[in-house]
Amino acid sequence: MQVARLGYLGIGTNRLDAWRSLATDILGAEIEERTERGAPALALRLDTHPYRYLLIESAQDAPPFAGWEVDDAATFDALAERLRAAGADPQPADATECAARGVAGLLRFRDPDGYPNELYHGAIARAEPELPHGGFVTGELGIGHVMRHCAHYPEAVAFYRDVLGLRTSDKIVWDGADATFMRCNPRHHSLALINECLGMASGDTNHIMFEMRALEDVVAAYDRVLARGDPLIMTLGRHSNCRTISFYFVGPSGFGIEIGHGSTLVEDEAGWEVRQYDTTKIWGHLLPHERLKELI
């Protein structure tokens, strides 16, 4: 029994207008105004799923909650029992909230570092949104990924592996950072866990990722970010492990947003070899000051 995909991310924020602007001007997502547990919210639609991102108005920014999807009620019930046995204290949502979310069942729990998660099944498919580009890589793979910093790093890896059923794709260890990349389907990773490093601590989100179907849409988004003047974290580059071509910038909630294309698919489970890398990149992914030195 395991989760099938990272179905959505929810983000509590006091900068709802900035997220609305980013979703429209940079990402090209379809936006729906809604209410989430009594608070104003935006639902970002990327495909036929009811939503892929929920931006919920709150007094202050909070760590994003990850929505893990399972394919049927039997798996949902089995994982709920496994969460209880692991001491994660899963709390079910009531029928009214499930109906508002467009799912058949939903429960909430936290991981060993206190990061909020949700487990759900039975999302009601809707019409494909009209997007101004080639679209996002989602569907059976779910959405891109989230990277979280952990104080209880080994315990967190064990939790997502042993309780939710994620598998390790590979690791990258560099400059005091130690990251484990985990998958629940052929997408190279839906979750990346990393120790407290790079000036970030447990409770901090390193970044979230959107994967585009077309490389040209990544480049177009890169140009729009530069034109708007959003703070750049890393220039266009290619990752060493998942081979994604991407760039990073600072989002409205302060954590990074990665937009990329071409992530590796693990289609041969039996033949996949878990490797450890000592660098995050093959080329590019320069920090802004490194890029400046190149130009001088």
UniProtKB/TrEMBL annotation:
Every VOC domain range: 5-122, 142-262
Pfam families: BphC_D1, Glyoxalase
InterPro entries: Glyas_Bleomycin-R_OHBP_Dase, Glyas_Fos-R_dOase_dom, VOC_core
Family matches, as SUPFAM superfamilies: Glyoxalase/Bleomycin resistance protein/Dihydroxybiphenyl dioxygenase
Gene3D superfamilies: 2,3-Dihydroxybiphenyl 1,2-Dioxygenase, domain 1 (3.10.180.10)
Descriptive protein name: VOC family protein
Organism whose genome encodes this protein: Sphingomonas colocasiae
